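Hello, quick one for you while I still have it in my head. My current little project is about how a certain protein chain folds up. You're getting the sequence in one-letter code plus the fold written as tokens. Would you mind checking whether the tokens look sensible for this chain? Here's the protein in full, and shout if anything looks odd to you:
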Amino acid sequence: MGMIFLIWGVAFFIVQTILGVIASSKDKLHNELLVSGTQISGTVEKVYLQISTRYAGEYPYRIIYTYTCQGKTYHQKSALIWDKPDCMENDTIIVYVNDSGKSTIQI
């Protein structure tokens, strides 16, 4: 019985480590884009409450936005936003992009 708990404990530790690395890399990319990304004008397509995610009784918002970079049009989603964003459909926003097409917004 102890061996089963040991295996489950190790498995959960591995999963926690992997998810921590993924979250850390996304935060690092977001901050890197805000500091050194190229600012491009984008358009808000939709602002919605993501009811499939809940934390401490709160639901986050997401923004779907579009921007054009190097002749290509990209459709992206924002990170989770816990305060109601002050933008609506068809509003213009600033999008921070890098050369590989990664982007982020700051509300």
